[in-house]
Amino acid sequence: MSDIKLIHTDKAPAAVGPYSQATAAGNMLFVSGQLGIVPSEGKLAEGFKAQTRQALENMKAILEEAGSSLDKVLAVDVFILDMGRFADLNGIYAEYFSDHKPARAAIQVGGLPLGGLVELKCMAVVG
Length: 127
Hints:
The chain is an alpha+beta fold. The chain has one domain: CATH 3.30.1330.40. The chain has 2 helices and 8 strands. The strands form 2 sheets. A 6-stranded mixed sheet has the order 1-2-3-8-6-7, with helices on one face. The longest helix is centred in the middle third of the chain and has 18 residues, at 48-65.
């Protein structure tokens, strides 16, 4: 267990349950699902597009705290409440991953914590 590092930053919202924002082992980083919560307010951003952008900003902040970055992301899992918003998701996602395109899955779900509309988690390399 001592080889696993727990990652935390105040630039992303605190976990909404008994888990870490991210964990790292060796050069691998696992970022927990990020909702579109504005860290300074502790509330979800208004609307799907704002939540998507905020979730990506939260993910970026955690990556940077761990010594990684968006261009070191290997895979992203997206949990989306309404697949009808897939085009909106892709448009915003492409702003963050323009040249570097990690593997990705998008899964429609029946609900997300706190009434969120979208959640993203990722796996990246550190260093």
